Amino acid sequence: MSSEANLLPLIVEPDRLAEVLDDPQLLIIDVPLKPESYAEGHVPGARFLDYRRLLVGSGEVPNEVPDEAALSALFSELGLTRDTHVVAYDDEGGGWAGRLLWTLELIGHRRYSYLNGGIHSWRAEGLPSETTPTAPVPSEYEAAILNPDVAIDRESLQERLGDKGFAVWDARSPEEYRGEKGQNRRLGHIPGAVNLEWTEAMDKARQLRIRDYAELITELEALGLTPDMEVVTHCQSHHRSGFTWLVGKALGFEKMRAYPGSWKEWGNRDDTPVEKP
């Protein structure tokens, strides 16, 4: 049976999503920064996801990816199946939703979309929302890291620095990038990394939707990032860079990767190179 949900684009507008809400193969996941956002009103049928489930949550790098058993448990709980088309959104412009979609890409589940602007755009369009939680219908999903190349670890990243056609997009604030603020042993940025803060890719006048693609591509090219390059994005915990990874995908950057260890790992070691302006 064909599914309308599987025809949704990577970046879906609220009115388009509203047309397919009854599709049985659709799984809408609300992964808000503030849990009360879900209770205040969510897209009808959306399941709530605590963003902390997307992180391992302990150890020296608590923002690392959970293991396959934890991911299997999470996606089974949410009711994911091989045929499901996931639409993710949040209440802050795409950070945690992006991290969720990046995790799906990591496990090889490529049927997914992002609700452009998240709950803000949905509400602004006057579309119906619900305040009662939607109970997931559990599945038996076995998650495996089928697409490891969407991630890069610290050692590999360090080896690749300076390679032609390879670039690092730091999604943190300019102050963090310059080493003026942060809660790490060492402050600054990865050598050669370029900085475009994640919120700079959001259109503040259009409920935090992704900004005009042509403008964004021009700005990224001015920083030295072009769609043909292999681009690794990171922030402090691969939360803000969940969104910049997604933006790169939307703009046609085919080799977008993310460094889940991010500055939490890099900035707390003594054997990583650090640059300051």
From TrEMBL:
**UniProt domain Rhodanese: residue ranges:** 22-131, 162-275
Coiled-coil regions, chain positions: none
Q: Where is the signal peptide?
A: none
Which keywords accompany this UniProt record?
Repeat
Under InterPro entries, the record lists: Rhodanese-like_dom, Rhodanese-like_dom_sf, Thiosulfate_sulfurtransferase, Thiosulphate_STrfase_CS
* SMART domains the UniProt entry points to: RHOD
Q: Which residue ranges run through the membrane? A: none
Q: Which PANTHER family does the annotation name?
A: THIOSULFATE SULFURTRANSFERASE
Protein name stated in the entry: Sulfurtransferase
* Species of provenance: Bisbaumannia pacifica
